[in-house]
Specification:
It is a single chain. The chain contains seven helices and seven strands. Strands 1, 2, 4, 5 and 6 form a five-stranded antiparallel sheet that branches. Strands 3-7 form a two-stranded antiparallel ribbon. The protein starts with 9 loop residues before the first strand and ends in a 7-residue tail after the last strand. The structure holds guanosine-5'-monophosphate (5GP) (3 copies).
Length: 223
């Protein structure tokens, strides 16, 4: 136990699709360009790496340690590219006040990944490595699911492409008929696993269907 918190069971790598997030958010950030028309990256970017329990709940804000940008200064260039904040709104932090997207994710989720990560640098570096190793955007592109403002793709086909590549079932969250987030799940040793545990692996399909229609899109930009 860590600060009286039960140890988590598995990791959820949460990815976001900028073309969808930027269409929905009310606080698009013109300064970083991510939400400006064709400047939206046509790739999944990182939202966070979330420790979860098998029962569907999760711990949050697990220790008093607050985010220190200096600890990850050598990763800043990579993080700006692959873990951009698409919104200008400053998220609230665990111990009061507001901070950056990275600070929010570290304090809310990262601090609960004990004993796998013992510091901020390990956490951010591993998230980048896992994101590069399990390249969802290229798996989908290779299967013909390319960013488009007009095409719609079968949700089942998208899930199958990922299952075939990584032998694990993802979970997908939509906003209307657009994919907004995609979760890929891992054991604590970073072997892929299904996001939902159960004898029937189609549980993930059931969960994804709750928020997504049968045919979904991956919008390339905000028009
Ligand atoms: P929402 O209510 O938009 O689904 O989620 C809001 C926030 O709750 C997320 O950004 C994330 O911080 C947290 N959250 C949502 N779903 C999960 C989950 O399955 N696992 C964990 N660890 N956090 C989640
Ligand atoms: P909902 O009840 O709509 O799934 O979640 C509403 C909010 O409550 C979410 O945005 C999330 O932040 C929080 N929440 C839901 N379940 C959990 C949980 O198991 N642990 C924590 N820490 N927050 C939760
Ligand atoms: P979560 O949903 O992870 O609990 O919280 C995300 C927080 O970070 C929200 O308050 C949101 O406004 C802020 N935020 C800043 N940039 C981003 C972004 O690119 N994506 C998401 N999902 N939230 C962002």
């Amino acid at each position: 136990s860590f600060d009286g918190q039960r140890e988590f069971d598995y990791f959820k790598l949460a990815l976001q699709w900028p073309g969808t997030y930027c269409k929905r958010t009310r606080s698009c950030c013109p300064t970083n360009g991510c939400c400006r028309g064709s400047n939206s990256p046509a790739v999944f970017t990182i939202h966070g790496l979330w420790p979860d329990y098998n029962d569907g709940s999760w711990p949050s804000c697990c220790s008093g340690s607050s985010f220190d940008p200096k600890e990850i200064s050598t990763l800043t260039n990579a993080l700006e590219q692959y873990w951009p904040s698409l919104s200008c709104s400053k998220p609230s932090l665990c111990h009061g006040g507001k901070g950056t997207f990275w600070a929010h994710e570290w304090e809310k989720h990262g601090t609960c990944s004990y004993p796998v990560f013992r510091n901020e640098y390990d956490y951010f570096l591993t998230v980048l490595n896992v994101y590069f190793k399990y390249n969802i955007t290229s798996v989908l592109n290779d299967a013909g699911y390319v960013p488009s403002n007009t095409e719609k793709y079968p949700l089942g086909g998208i899930i199958s492409a990922i299952e075939n590549a990584f032998h694990a079932s993802p979970q997908i969250v939509c906003s209307k008929d657009s994919i907004e987030e995609l979760y890929l799940c891992f054991y604590k040793n970073f072997q892929p696993r299904d996001c939902a545990l159960g004898s029937d692996i189609k549980i993930d399909m059931v969960t994804s269907k709750k928020s997504c229609p049968k045919y979904v899109s991956l919008p390339e930009s905000v028009s």
